[in-house]
Amino acid sequence: MTEAGGKLFNGRYRLIEPIGIGGMGKVWRGRDELLDRDVAVKEILFPHSMPLSERKVLGQRAMREARSAARLNHPGIVTVHDVITCDDAPIIVMEFIDGSSLAQVIEREERLAPAEVARIGAMMLEALGEAHAAGIVHRDLKPANVLLTGNRVIITDFGIASLAGDVALTASGVLIGTPAFMAPEQVDNLPVTAAGDLWSLGATLYAAVEGRPPYTGTNLMAVLAAMIAREPDPPVHAGSLAPILTGLLRKDPAERLDTEQASLALAAVTAAQDGQPPLHTAPSRPWAPPSASKASAWPASERPHDGQLGDLDTATRRHRFSPPEGPGQGRNGDAPASAQPAAARGIRSLSRRRVLLLAGLGAMAAAGVPAAVALTRGPESSLSRPGQWTLAATLTGHTWDVEAVAFSPDGTTLASSDREGTLRLWDVTARKPLVTLTGHTAGVHAVAFSPDGTTLASGGEDKVVRLWRTG
Known about the structure:
InterPro entries: Kinase-like_dom_sf (IPR011009), Prot_kinase_dom (IPR000719), Protein_kinase_ATP_BS (IPR017441), Ser/Thr_kinase_AS (IPR008271), WD40/YVTN_repeat-like_dom_sf (IPR015943), WD40_repeat_dom_sf (IPR036322), WD40_rpt (IPR001680). The protein is an alpha+beta fold. Helices cover about 25% and strands about 25% of the residues. It folds into three domains: about 10-80 and about 85-90, 2-Layer Sandwich (Phosphorylase Kinase, domain 1); about 100-270, Orthogonal Bundle (Transferase(Phosphotransferase), domain 1), CATH 1.10.510.10; about 360-380 and about 390-470, Methylamine Dehydrogenase, Chain H, CATH 2.130.10.10. It is built from eleven helices and 17 strands. Strands 1-2-3-4-6-5 form a six-stranded antiparallel sheet. A five-stranded antiparallel sheet has the order 10-11-12-13-14, with no helix packed on it. Strands 7-8-9 form a three-stranded antiparallel sheet.
């Protein structure tokens, strides 16, 4: 189904053109030839590394969730028309929305006025309330999943996004979601409730009014590190919307604004701004990536790329999509040095799951050291005299450039990873390899041990975080 347009599916849905793609989904503009209307056809694409048994389970879950979402009937929620299968993969047929996503509006406008954002938020909250009342949690709410057309604000991917949340951390250690808009409890692999959607709502509105998400970083690990180590920066452009954003972005779900509180607060902001212009809706037109010379809502060094964690990109509208990153793109290095001490100070009070998801903040960079890891030894009393350090050993075995290394908490084991996606564990005392770990399909740029040394986390270009346990 993903090879070419024009295919007639299920004797009814004609594929016209691809309009969006993400880590776990591809969207086509299609035509319902029975009812003579445009539709959006979304195909779920499982990660290549996912075992067949898991694909079947997730396929069944996707069907169940999409059928649940089809029960929703609200102008602020994209309508699910049909749920079918192709080669054991779920196919979701949805309402085709001809409009701009909130992410595209932010990209064009850089920031939106607080009153406008409050009106968008109020309409989003009404739609979320409808879904939550039906027992459906979105779990991947973000500007790319919010469409603006006419006077409508439409949330997309209900049910389908629930699939991505349900496999937030599977047995194979694959984390799926969008880190810049993911609730802290979702990062912790805790049950995600309606409160998680409210956190993501706050992050989405924060991005709209500030021009950037509440947490940014040069890469995925830096974003997660910022999230678990500190509170979001106070908004500076939000005006009367600021206390609402702060209330929605409380890390503890019990302290977060609930739906009723947020609704009343947003209504108060919009009521106080009755003289403001109407809801922002840009004219519909094919969207193209901004030129390099145009200022972006997210600076290139901080922009949270869609699909970093297997993001299910929503594109149920008539817009072109950005071409996928080429080899080597999106690798922006580790977290800034200034961010690392703050993250390190916060680690002691964090759960082990959060520490694992840092996946490399404590790792020593070794990129550019082809096929070998060098151990050096220096005086215990000082790390500031590099001239006194001597080479202790050279460990060989990698066949590609070494990307990252990390010591276990007790210092007896060293983990290293390379551009091919291979991890190796070494006995530091004996200077011998212990085990080779495979499973990543692309280069691994970050590795980190849990505080007790029983679990190793790894992450890289295949957009997944894997957890490896001893024993």
